[in-house]
Amino acid sequence: MIFFFFIYPFPSSFVVVVTFSHTSSRPCLVC
To answer: Superkingdom of the source (predicted)?
Structure first.
């Protein structure tokens, strides 16, 4: 997940949500 922060200039929070959504099949908890 760390490399995502460096690659994507988007806010860390958004990246985390997207990463978790793709990683886990469960719906995003912080939507």
So the answer is: Eukaryota
Buried b (16+ CB within 10 A) or exposed e, 5-16: eeeeeeeeeebe
- Written as six digits, the tokens of 11 are 């806010």
- Only one residue has tokens 């760390």, namely 2
**Residue 29 structural domain:** 1-31
Q: Residue-wise pLDDT tens for the chain (31 aa)?
A: 555 555 556 566 676 777 766 555 565 555 5
